[in-house]
Amino acid sequence: xxxxxxxxxxxxxALQVKLGGQYVDCTVGEGGHATAVLEHGGRVLxxxxxxxxxxxxxxxxxxxxxxxxxxxxDFTNLADICSxxxxxxxxxxLFDLGMSSFQLADAKRxxxxxxxxxxxxxxxxxQEFTAATxxxxxxxxxxxxxxxRAVGKRxxxxxxxxxxxxxxxxxxxxxxxLKVALKQALHVLEVGGRLVVITFHSLEDxxxxxxxxxxxxxxxxxxRTPVCICGHHATLKLIVKGVVAPSRSEIQANPxxxxxxxxxxxxx
Length: 268
Ligand SMILES: C[S@@+](CC[C@H](N)C(=O)[O-])C[C@H]1O[C@@H](n2cnc3c(N)ncnc32)[C@H](O)[C@@H]1O
What we know:
Blueprint: H1 8-15, E1 22-25, H2 32-39, E2 43-47, H3 51-61, E3 68-71, H4 78-85, E4 90-96, H5 101-105, H6 131-137, H7 140-151, H8 159-171, H9 174-188, E5 189-199, H10 202-215, E6 236-238, H11 248-253, E7 261-267
Parallel strand pairs: 1-2, 1-4, 2-3, 4-5
Antiparallel strand pairs: 5-7, 6-7
The structure holds S-adenosylmethionine.
């Protein structure tokens, strides 16, 4: 199953890809977004915690030779990876969160409730803490809280979809890792560089929204503080107020895109 990149044109436009510019794709997956960046004349550093994804991306990006560098690591090491590889300055950073189609389709990875398989669900298959660990060892109330956080009450989506998503978020510590990586993105991006984040569920989107809001403000003191005592300075300018969502035709062609939301900011 080939992964169809979500919000592809919108993400490339938001990154403002320029000839010879350097871009980090923190979730390179099967290389869909990375290919488009390369086609627009950029160089790409692609990161993915899943060695299988790196294998796919390596095959996809082969025609671009040294313009594409791939590394099998967690994006929480973003700053260290860029400095180790001398990949600086960075003109844009992309996060396209969630999972790749090949991960969902591979029964033994345990991401889908449509296959009979062990509950693994780790983006990094060498991780020992799996969804089975959670289901079999967490006390009942903690398990219930983990699911309720992500399941909510919404409409037509199969409840198992959200339950599996909740487990996946917990196993991969997705929110915690995203928080760490977003902070590092601020250090890595050059002034004028773009930060583009595509999320697929409201917990992730809220985290990105709060981070962008905080980092686009000069002072974070409580409203009635007479003089600023926090000394915070804005590091980001919001390029899109709110979110960019997929068009109706994209959702029709690729139903997986239905819950995507993209936020865009610029390093100042
Ligand atoms: C939606 S896919 C990316 C698809 C890609 N944009 C494309 O067009 O082919 C998300 C990818 O992020 C990877 N990923 C998830 N958490 C990660 C983390 N903490 N560090 C690095 N990669 C991660 C997953 O393994 C998966 O391959």
